[in-house]
Design brief:
173 residues; alpha/beta; 5-stranded mixed β-barrel
Amino acid sequence: MKSENVIRVHTPISDELINSLKIGDKISLSGAMYCGRDAVLPKLVDSIENGDADKYPFDFEGMAIMHTAVSVAGIAPTTSNKAEIESSIPVLSQAGVKFHIGKGSLSEDTKKSLDKYNSIFIITPPVAALLTSSIKSRKCVAYEKEGMEAFYELEVEDIPGIVAIAHGKSIYD
C-alpha cells in the first residue's frame, strides 16, 4: 500500500509485491529482516547448493537480507558488489530471497539473475543511526562464531530504501 509516495512492505515478501515494484520506488520495510555479508553469505550458498538449507531456523522464501554486520554500533549496508556478496545473490534469489539490500551497483549478470528469480535489489542510505533506530529486536540465527558478521534475524520497523534493480532494469543505467 502506498502512503506519502512510500510503499509499505512487510515480510515475508510476495511475488505479487515484487511484480508491482519499479525502479525508483521508495519502500519502507518492516518485519523480519536478515543480515549477512562476506563471512556468512557464501556459507548460506554452500548449504543451499548441498541441499542443507532446511537445517536453519528460518525459511528463505519471501526473505529480505541486508548486506551488513550487526554490531553494538548498529547496522549500515556494506558494498554489495564484493565478490563474496554479489556471487551469493543468484543462489539466494533462487532459494526465495526477494529483497537484497545494500549499496553500490551490481553486474549485468547479477541484474539478469535477479530478474530470472523475481527478486530485486534495494539501496538504503548508509546512515547507521537512522537504520539502527528501526531495530525492535535481534537474534543470531546462524554462524554465531563469526561474531558481528554472523547471520542475524532482526525485527525491524520502517527501514527505508529505494528500488535500484528490478525486472532487468537498473537505476544505474
